[in-house]
Amino acid sequence: MAKNSINPKHVGFEGIRQLDEAGNEFWSARQLGKVLEYSEYRHFLPVIAKAQKACKASGYAVLDHFEDILEMVEIGSGAQREVEDVRLSRYACYLIVQNGDPSKPVIANGQTYFALQTRRQELEDNAKFAQLSEDEKRLAIRNELAEHNKHLAAAAKDAGVETPLDYDFSGSWLSGFVWRLGG
Q: Exposed/middle/buried for 88, CB within 10 Å: 0-12, 13-18, 19+?
């Protein structure tokens, strides 16, 4: 199989991908629900809600990945009406597939698709990282660590760590954070 070929089981997902005016990719939740074989959009809404909770719990802004929109659709005799839809990022689609019904073969295939895409990206990132100079590697690691520290600090704040008194006796807020979580 060629490196850039797409498994026919995944053509439905890539086939409904759209681009906005700025060239950003997105998917329609209504179309994705059909590809994932949900009989009605209303049966797909709980999956979207669960994915939104996962997005929020991961520290990402839900509105950056799940945008409520109104779409015009044709209803008999050429008339049109507005229907609610959700504009999804690739990350949102990933979360939806991960939170879908795994007994559905199409969901299992979607989970496989995203696992393969994730691994492919990891390999590509590793190859790019290996080509960096030592100084560039240190800078990349420092930037990644800074980003993780921001998420960790936000989680600590959410857990109630606000003042030096909330830290453990050694002064390590991380130890205090773990202690407060019961670790």
A: buried
